[in-house]
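Review form for a predicted model. The reviewer records the input and the model, then writes brief findings.
Reviewer: anonymous (R2)
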Amino acid sequence: MEKKSKKTMVNSWNEWDSLKHVIIGRADYCCIPWPEPALDAKVPQDSDMKGMHGPRPQATVEKANEQLDNFAQVLEKRGIRVDRPKPLQWCQAIATPDWKVNSMFGCMPPRDVLLTVGKEIIEATMSYRCRWFEYLAYRPLLQSYFAEDPDMKWEAAPKPRLTDADYKLDYLSDKITAEERLKWTAEKNFVTTEEEPLFDAADVCRMGQDLFVQHGFTTNLKGINWLQRHFPEHRIHAVNFPGDPYPIHIDATFVPLRPGLCINNPKRRLPKDQRKIFEINGWEIVDAAQPAHKNPPPLCYSSVWLSMNCLVLDTKTVCVEASEVHQLEQMDKLGFEVIPVPFRDAYPFGGGLHCATADVYREGSCEDHFPKQLDGI
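Model under review:
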C-alpha cells in the first residue's frame, strides 16, 4: 500500500536547522527588465546588461532550468520535499494608477519574495516596480499550505505605491563615480527614500529570536520598522556593509552557517560597532573564501560573490556552487559535508543557491542565540 505523504507544516526560525521542505524557483519566461528608478541605480556601469531589456535568450532559460531541476533532484534524494512556483508570462506590461513598466522579472529567486519566520510566511513589499506582481507565482503554493496547515500564518506586507517619491531620481549608476558610490553607501545614502515601508525578504537573515536586516538599496528603515512592529517578540537589528557599492540582499555578504559561526564578504565587512553583538555572544565571523571567477556570467546583475551564496541543509551539510572551488575548500575545512551543485548558468536569473530557495519547513524551534544584547544595535 502506498504511503500517504505528510501534510504541509510551515516552520523555519533560522538558516541552519535541518531543512525538510523548500521552494525552488523556475527560469521560465524570465525577462531583463526595462529601465525604472529602482533598477537604473543598480546595474553596474560596466555591465553587459546596460541598455538591454526584454525576454532572456531561450537557450539560457533552458540551461538555467536544467540546473534548477538538478538542484531540486539533489535535495529530493536527501529526503527534502521540493515545491516549485507557477511561472507567469513575465514579458508583458504591467501598470497601477501611478506607473507602467513594459515587463516583469521572473520567479527564479523565491528568497527575495517570501520570508518564513516560524509558522508565518510573509510576501515582501518588493522595491522594483517590475517585481510588484511576482508573488502571484507563489500563490498556488501558499494557498495549499494554508489549507493543509491549520497553524500557518500568511501575511502580505503593505503593497507600496512605488511612485517617484520612493526613489532618489538622480541616483543613476552612469552619473556616479565609483568613489562617490562607495562614499554614499558608507553614509547610508541609498537610492530608496523613506516615503513608505520597503523590504525584500532576501535582506533578512534569520537567527532565531534575532533578525538581522540589511539597510540598503532594497530595504529602507521604514521597512525595518514595519518588521519590528510585525514581530514584537523578535529583536530586529539594522545592519549595513560599507564597501558594497550595490547593497542588494544580505546573502552574498553575510551568511550564518551554524550557531556561533558566520562567513562575511571580506570586501564588505560588518562594521565594528555592529560586530559587537556577535563578539559578546561568542560568535566567530570569518572572511569568506575568494570567488573562483573574476567576472559574473553573461547578462548577470549579481557580483562574483554569489560564490558564498550557499544553502545550509543542516549544521553539518551545505550546498555550494560546483565551480566555486575556494568556497568548497573553505566549507570542508570548517567541518561541513559539502555538496557541489552546478548552478552558474542559473546565476543571471536571480542569484545563487540560497537565492533560488525559500524555506517552508526546518526542524527546530525559536532559540535565543544572542542572550547578551547591546543598546541600539
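Findings: The chain has one domain: 19-362.
Further findings: Residues 19-362 form a domain with the L-arginine/glycine Amidinotransferase; Chain A fold (CATH 3.75.10.10).
Recommendation: see findings above.
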